[in-house]
Amino acid sequence: MYQKMDEDRKLEFNFTAQDVIDQGRTKREYIEEIMEWLPVSGDKLVPAVLDEQVILLFLLSCKNDVEFTKKTILAFYRCKKAAPEIHDQRDLNRPDIKLALNTIHMSSIPVRTDDNCAIHYFKLHDPNYHNFDLYAIMKISYMLLDVTLKNNPPDGLVVVIDMKGLGLLHMTKLKIGAIKKYFHFLQEGFPMQLRVIYVINAVYFMDKIMSIIRVFMKSELVDMLKIYPADMPNEKLHELIPKKCWPKEYGGDLPSERDLHDITMDQLKDRQTYWRTEELIRKECEK
Q1: What is the pLDDT of residues 125-162, one digit of tens each?
Q2: Computed from CA positions of residues 33, 35, 38, 40, in that sequence, does the dihedral angle turn out positive or negative?
Q3: pTM for the full model?
Q4: Any idea of the CA torsion for 232, 233, 234, 239, to the nearest 10 degrees?
Q5: Each residue of 179-198: pLDDT tens digit?
Q6: Which residues pair with 120 in a beta bridge?
Q7: Fold category of 95-269 in CATH
Q8: Could you tell me which residues come within 8 angstroms of residue 37 by beta carbon, excluding any fewer than 6 positions away?
Q9: For the chain, what are the domain ranges?
């Protein structure tokens, strides 16, 4: 018999595991098998009990392969332990996070693709490279994940990165250790199926960026990366992602990217309790 989550340790979601089971997307026995495995996982970093929704998200990200799900859960907690500078202290009042949220505009796009993929959109807002704090920007990009996963779980994730405004001096802010840790989590412990990464308005030195990051990318991730040049016509962008999912700056049906960023800011504020509780659970396991 598996343990149950204490009420004060429950994480907030706007769906239940039963909702997703009723949709035919997973099975109750898969969730229960993971719940029975948690206390005997053999790794002290893994909590002995998790919310059903958390387990469900891992199962969906692993296409309901229970053994693969176990490996992903292990990697999730090990990666977070190894990179507290990316995964801990997700407080919107921190000066570095405030700076990052002004440097980068981002959005969990409110309209999903026809195949129920969520879209994460990122764009450089402040081009001053002095304000480009890589660790903080990595942190907020993963904070966006928790915004998206609060609601009906998507079947995959599409990432859009608009590189307009990025300059050569931004490369001086890249940190090899941070890049390695970021990609390790993305490829081993990420609780969502990453489908594709679209890089638009690619800079002329994209080859230099790739020479730095490619060493940390598996071939599967490299294949997901699709790079497009500057000033690509909106009609071509709409062939990548439906028009209904683009901000109006790209000829889309949604509000401006600034308005979408402001909406996301409110969604981030709504997840503060979630992050405090999630980190507390991890820290108790690390003692």
Answers
A1: 999 999 999 999 999 999 999 999 999 999 999 999 99
A2: negative
A3: 0.96
A4: -80
A5: 999 999 999 999 999 999 99
A6: 108, 159
A7: Phosphatidylinositol Transfer Protein Sec14p (3.40.525)
A8: 70
A9: 7-82, 95-269
